[in-house]
Amino acid sequence: MPKLIPVPDDVSKPFWDACNKEKLVLQYCKSCSKLQHPPQRACKECGADGNIEWREVNGRGKILSYVVVHDTRQLLRVPDQPFNIAVIQLEEDPGINFLSNLPGTVVDEVPVGAKVQVEFELVMPGQLINEWRVID
Predict the structure, then answer these.
(1) Count of domains observed in the chain
(2) Among 3, 11, 18, 63, which one is least packed by beta carbons within 10 Å?
(3) How far apart are CA 6 and CA 101, in angstroms?
(4) Do 25 and 54 touch, CB atoms closer than 8 A?
(5) Alpha-carbon distance 121 to 5, whole Å?
(6) Confidence class of residue 1 from pLDDT cuts 50, 70 and 90?
(7) What does each C-alpha distance from 16 to 10, 53, 54, 103 come to in angstroms?
């Protein structure tokens, strides 16, 4: 299934570079000890600027909810309709959510509450993206 290709900027580049090494990293604020995603220049919790570092996380979570996309305006994805989009809650910080197509999960048969593990999918030569797969 074709996926959108990320265009890293100076803030998100460390995230995408880690994906290319099959690692999931998040920003961590050393001032207030909070993880955050998506990447931002300053901490969204306390506003600290310049006190952010990147930390690897275990890449586990659970499915909170999902929708089935039947009509997308993303031309690259039109041939794949319908497809799942699931909201994944990160195990290490329940306040951080990701979106995933859930590779290997049948359309509209998403097991809400199921455990998932991050995996990395090649979207173009030299670029991996994070997706999530249901695990037992």
Answers:
(1) 1
(2) 11
(3) 15
(4) yes
(5) 11
(6) low
(7) 11, 15, 12, 19
Cis peptide before 82 (omega within 30 of 0): yes
Nearest to 4 by CA among 104, 123, 128: 123
Q: Is residue 5 in a domain?
A: no
Residue 3 located in a structural domain: no
- The pLDDT value given to residue 76: 80
Q: Give the pLDDT band (50/70/90) at residue 74.
A: confident
Q: In what side-by-side order are the strands of the sheet with 115-124? A: 97-100, 83-90, 60-69, 115-124, 127-134
Q: CB neighbours (10 Å) of residue 52?
A: 19
Q: Please give the residue range of the domain that contains residue 55.
A: 13-134
Which residue reads 């999918």 in tokens? 121
Mapping DSSP onto H, E and C, the string for 103-125 reads: CCCCCCCCCCCCEEEEEEEEEEC
- How many Cβ atoms are within 10 Å of 38's Cβ, its own excluded? 12
Considering the domain boundaries, does residue 49 fall inside one? yes
Distance of CA 56 to the CA centre of its chain: 13
Domain-embedded: residue 4: no
